[in-house]
Design brief:
188 residues; alpha/beta; 2,3-Dihydroxybiphenyl 1,2-Dioxygenase, domain 1; nine-stranded mixed sheet; 4 helices; 30% strand; globular
Length: 188
Amino acid sequence: MSITTQPRIHVSLATQDVARAVEFYSTLFGVEPEKRYDDYAKFAPASPALNLAINAVKSESSGTQRVLHMGIELPSADEVNALRARLESAGLKGIAEESAACCYAISDKFWVTDPDGNQWELFANSVTDTGTSGNGRLSAPTPAEMSTGASCSPASGCCAPAPTAAAETAAFKPLASVPADQGGSCCG
């Protein structure tokens, strides 16, 4: 596995059956997953330039989103920081995560949410396969975290596992996502 040299779109999907999803996407893209675990798979076909993450969930509930978030994988943390600076200077608030351990990778990230609640993860991987899922989140930071615009690192605690769906839903409906007990990684 290699760190990307060109930006590519990232989509994180929820599934109840990783094996079935892997079979479907292997057929669709004509390639096997770059990374495969019982609870996670990552496809990185050359064409289309895509980073598709498949995350296992235990059961479907009415509050579960199938598209967990979207993103742009960038070649370096410097490019993440440059994009972050441009977005912040344009007035977009977001939150940064440094050395976030999730999706079997280590990444520097900047999360933003569009006006309709669609979450975007802008990230660069520094380690592409750690062998462990990490403690990252499946969705963007909460509105309270977003309003501070503060950076976060694993040591700060904001990169802890996502709160329960009930807590997220009460805080901000568009960010309701897979409950922490039904999956447990983000998608770098």
